[in-house]
Each structure stands twice: as C-alpha cells, then as structure tokens.
Amino acid sequence: MTTTAPRPSATTGSPVSRRGGAPRRPWLTYRRRDNLTGLLMVSPQLLGSAAFVIGPLVAVVWYSLHEWRVLANEFTFVGAGNYERLAADPGFHDSLRATGLFSVGLVVFNISLALALAVMLDQKLRGTAVFRTLFFSPVVVTLVAWTIVWGFLLQDNGGINAFLEVLGLDGPNWLRGESTSMLGVVVVQVLKNVGLNMVLFLAALQGVPEELKEAARMDGAGPWRVFRSITLALISPTILLVSIITVVGSLQVFAQIAVLTQGGPGTSTTVLVYYLYQQAFQFKEFGYASAVAVVLFGIVLVLTLIQWGLRRRFVFHES
One biological-process term from Gene Ontology (predicted)? Predict the structure, then answer.
C-alpha cells in the first residue's frame, strides 16, 4: 500500500508540487523583484520627463503645423506652412546670424579664459584661494541682478566709460552701437559663467599625474609641448563636457538680451530664443513661434551629436 505525501499548506510558503513534475516556480522571483524595485525608484523621473519634456516637445511639434492666432481664436492646420514662412523670413535669418555670433563668441572666450585661469590656479601660487573666489562668485549671483548691474556699467555715462575717461579714452555707448552691443552681451555672459568652467578645468588639471609630465620633461619636451601633448589630452573629457554645456547654454540665452538690449539696436542682438519670445508673446503667433522652437531644438540636437561624435577622435579615454 502506497502513501501519498501530504500537500503543503498555504501558510508554510512551500512551493506546491505539480503532479508528476518539478515544484512550481513562483512568479515574483528575486530578479523580477529587483527589477520592479528599480522601476519604482526611477518612475518619478520617468513620469516627470514624460509630463514636462516629452509631452511638451510633442505638443510644440503639433502646434508648429498649425496657424494659431490666439486673439482671433483661430487654430488652422497649415502643414509645413510655418517652416516655409521661416525660410523666407528676413527676421529669422537675422536671428540665426545673431545666435551664431553670440555662440561663437561665448564659446571661444569662455572656454579660453576658463582654461587659462585654471592653469594659473594650478600653479599653487600665493593668493590663489582669493583669486578663485573672485572669479567664482558671479556664478552664485542671480542672473537678472548681475545683468542689471552690468546694464548700468555699460551705459554711455556708466562706470566702464568713466574708467576709460580717466585713461584718456572716449568709450562708446556699448549697448546701443551696432558693432558693440553683441560684444557687450558676450562679455557679460562670459564673466557670469567663466568661474564654473574654471573650477571644472581646475579639478581636471589636478588629476593629471605629475609623473607623466616629469617623464616628458626628461625626454626634452618644453612647457608648451607638455601642456599640448599630455595635459590637454588627459583633460579632453572635461573639455568635451564644458564645450557641450557652453554651446547648449549659448543657444538658450534670453534674460541677458531682454534686460540689456531687448534685441537691439535693430536686430543685431535678437537671438533665436528672443525672436521666439517676440513671435509668441508680443505678436501672439504661437504656431509660428512653435516652428522656431522646433528649429532651435534641431540645431541644439545636431550640434550636440556632432560634438559627441568628435569624442572618438579628440577625447582621450583611459583603458
């Protein structure tokens, strides 16, 4: 006479055996529980990105295909009509030119000055702590307050021209001249953010091994060759990071233009973001402004992909 083993009760937590087979595997395994925990941890970020990044981006693309006149309560599908209008709009072309000038000036001056300051601070001279604090303090100052102060300094009778007058020079009206307004805006922005890039470069420079530089000197390399072939190569990942941040930031400038020049004189400082603001909130052309936003997004995406693609050729990766 054969006896049948008792079936485990539900309270013991033991797996229930199948007839003539292996024990049934529970659905919530350790791996699935671990994956579920990870999804729950990142779900707030995913939901936030979907609600405040992906959703608005899709909405802007949809609006760009329509002629949306809020005052007239008109919302008409026009397809690529807004983009065709952009291609023939002289104001849009002027904003592209102004954006290019601002971006090139900001990237060149900001990165060059930040790297030069970081190299100076890396020499461990006396007073470097005060020097570092002096250049980093504008980073923590409110952007609008910083811009307003510089707006007074750059006026025709402001502090900059008063200082030049002491030296016997006659300074221009910096923010009202066709050739000086963009320069003034670039200088204000460079001095605002150069401290952050300086700190990033300084941290990278302090991570360069002294043994490599000393070995190069023993082989007869001069200071410039050591800096170019060793130091720049080892801090190239930081240079890439700073370049991407600076380029993207230069394409999103708005507060400085709105406070200092309001896009003038003429359209010499009307960058893309300020042109978008004018079309949307001054002229109430939300569909046309959405097309400008889509073009701006495409420019940022393309430039970022180009910079990221160049990393394989110019960025050193330690193996």
Answer: transmembrane transport
Q: What is the DSSP letter of 137?
A: G
Strands, E assignment, the chain: 66-69, 74-77
For residue 108, the tally of other CB atoms under 10 A from its CB is 13
**Nearest alpha carbon to residue 235 among 214, 215, 211, 205:** 205
pTM of the model: 0.83
The topology (CATH level 3) of 91-314 is MetI-like fold (1.10.3720)
Closest CA to 260 of 315, 191, 184, 159: 184
Confidence check: pLDDT of 11 > 50: no
Spatial contact of 207 and 231, defined as CB atoms under 8 Å apart? no
What are the extents of the domains in the chain? 30-64, 91-314
Q: How confident is the model at residue 4 (pLDDT cuts 50, 70, 90)?
A: low
pLDDT at residue 125, as a whole number: 76
For residue 20, the model assigns a pLDDT of 55
